[in-house]
Design brief:
Length: 236
């Protein structure tokens, strides 16, 4: 039986809608989900089923309408905005599908941003960022601007930025979608090695069946709900 220290994320009856009136769309319809510490959980399902909305709620980027979402026992929705921002910066790393790199900063500067926000001196932050870029095989592109990088390279920069401050929860939206098979496998090896330990967890939204075998569990979503949770892709 799991204790409170074994649960990284606890979602109970979480709902979320967009729009009003005839344009109202229910994105989440009473989601119940637990993510365990030391676990890599994948969210799969058709486009528009609510996967990205759910991880955005988990990461504190969106507030749910109803229900509860606790991250390491913390109710992020009801924190004051300054406390929520600080908590996200300290606890959560997010790899966005659209990368969200700062166009005027080099790759190494983009990766260093979370460390700079936490008050680390610039030289030390850049040194750590350079080491992390090496781990995603981009050490030779450290001084390149995002516009000078391919989509796959930008994706690896975004992954390095999410990992640089050793957050307890890593949330990724399609982290291998722009990567070839070999690079995708290396990125997933890095995510597992860096993100997973007894007090951390990793949640990945993906359509990429090539990486399903990295998951400890796979949760299939459909129409804003968790339809089933399995331990292997063959059971989907």
């Amino acid at each position: 039986m799991l204790g409170p220290d074994d649960v990284a994320v606890h979602c109970s009856r979480v709902t979320k809608h967009y729009g009003t009136g005839n344009a109202r769309v229910m994105a989440l319809r009473g989601v119940d989900l637990e993510v365990h510490t030391g676990e890599l959980l994948m969210l799969v399902g058709p486009s528009g089923c609510g996967k990205t909305t759910l991880i955005s709620v988990i990461a504190g980027i969106l507030d749910q309408d109803e229900g509860t979402c606790l991250v390491f026992g913390q109710d992020v929705k009801h924190m004051p905005q300054h406390a929520k921002t600080r908590y996200r910066g300290q606890t959560i790393g997010f790899v966005f599908q659209s990368f969200h790199l700062i166009p005027t900063l080099t790759a190494v500067e983009n990766v260093a941003v979370p460390l700079l926000i936490r008050g680390l001196r610039r030289r030390a932050a850049l040194a750590q960022a350079a080491e992390m870029l090496d781990r995603v095989s981009l050490g030779d592109r450290a001084r390149a601007l995002p516009s000078e990088l391919s989509g796959g390279q930008q994706q690896r920069v975004a992954t390095a930025r999410a990992l640089i401050h050793a957050p307890r929860l890593i949330v990724c939206d399609e982290p291998t979608s722009a990567l070839d098979a070999d690079t995708g496998q290396r990125v997933m090896d890095l995510l597992r090695a860096v993100a997973l330990s007894a007090d951390r967890a990793l949640v990945i939204v993906t359509h990429d069946a090539r990486i399903f075998h990295f998951a400890d569990r796979i949760a299939r979503m459909d129409d804003g709900r968790i339809a089933k949770i399995v331990a292997s892709p063959e059971a989907l």
